[in-house]
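Supplementary notes for students who missed Thursday's class. We covered one full example, reproduced here. Read the sequence, then the structure, then the short commentary at the end.
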Amino acid sequence: MTDQPGTPAQGPDHEQGRQGDPRAGQPDRNGRPAQPVHPWQGASTGARGVPASAAPPPARVNGSAEPPRLAPKPLHRPPVDPAQSSSFRRPPGVTGSFDPNRRNLPVRGIEGTTPPAAPLASAFGRPEDSTEQLQRAPGEQPATPEPAEDPVLWNSDERDPWRNPAAGAVLGPPAASVEQEESEPTEAGPLLSVREVLFGRRVETRALVILTVIVVLIGLVGGFLGRITAEEGNPLLNPSVTLAEVEPAQDRPKGTVAAVAQRVVPAVVSIEVRVGAQGGSGSGVVIDGDGYVVTNNHVVSMAADTPNAKVSAVFHDGTRAPARIVGRDVKTDLAVIKVEVSNPTVAQLGDSDALSVGDDVIAIGSPLGLAGTVTTGIVSSVHRPMRLAGEGTDTNAVIDAIQTDAAINPGNSGGALVDGNGAVVGINSAIRTLGAGGEGGSIGLGFAIPIDDVRRIAQELIRTGHVQHADLGVNAKSVSDGLADGAQVQNVQDGSAAAAAGIAEGDVIIRVGERKVGSADELVVAVDRHQVGEQIPVAVVRQGRELVLDVTLR
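Structure (token representation):
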């Protein structure tokens, strides 16, 4: 036989190798027909996989030798344990990883146990018609509804592709929508400081203007509400009250006391104070339609700081009404009380500066508890400095009094001193007597607080409940050298108005503003006529020379 180029030689050895190979004639693992097995395959090979005993002759192509081809590495299949093959092999006819035809799989891969014995099931098992998981006492209800049992993965009527491993791949929407991603809260940035807001150009100018307007509006509304709250916080105070003054009369008619008394007596009340077993009485004048009554501080001072004290006002017709103290001023011996009555008769307030010595006046009050008592007299003097103090009261005042010879007795304190036209020109406050200790009746020396001072003090008490007085800041005594009188400075308080103006100890003050000063009491009333913060000239005599110093009162 002639050899063909490129064809291995055929001979007995070749056929013998095919017959000895057990894989000869069998299809491979992929079902392809078996390839011819060369006699050197499956035997021991050398370094290149060629049998050590014999190697195939080199093929020739067009008369040249072809290099030998590398043979595949033989497969090694270890033997399979029959027991493991029985447990883990695929069922017959199944080529994939799961059996789609099997429906009787155990729940969650757990094999059920054998049913319990009948006595145990009867004693401890749940009733046949019950679906509860826990055993409960008869009639007991669960505190919270039990959640429904989770459906069995793919062994149920659900066809959820996420729970059924046998489901095919299906394209669907993204797991998180765009709206959900946008609605996720973002981290807050750093807060801006006031400097960055105003000067850092981080906020638009228009926004700053709007913010400023809003803040101003809020402040105005808050201030308005605060004022209303402050005003309504104390029902005794009335910041809007103004005590009116009547026009002074040019003529002073005679023989009209009865007409004046008829008009003024209903506006004067008797005031009674009770503190336990003790008591006192005085008079008062109605000065405002809301029931405000002005009186002397020494009339009501005993009831000011006593919880169980009772103050009442008795009108000319016998009507009695409880009263409450609005405010007191111990430096002028004035106080204001409020009586809850409707439509009271209000007295007209006159002008005390228009009074002249010799003018007719009428004193109305309740001396010794006798309500509605009317006495007449004249003005004996004006601008008479009088110091008021006494036992049982905290009054320590110096008043610029109107002196009258109209009969004034204990109980007249707080009553009205009226001019010939029926206008109140003063509040009766004190008398001078000849009796020891100040006891006794009228000897024609009565003193009243000018209504101009009363109007100012009472108005401040009604509005705020207290009064602030101007203070020079010196202690003085009355002196006279035979030619002139004055108030000599004994000491100057540190930080006072006098210290700031340069007033020194030993200086004799002879004038405050436009008023001459002839005594220490007159210095007090001269300073008290001015307001806090007012700048006034003060004339002093220092080492025989007169100096004028500008003083700002504090």
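Commentary. Confidence is low (pLDDT under 50) at residues 1-24, 37-55. The chain is about 20% helix and 25% strand. If anything here is unclear, bring it to office hours.
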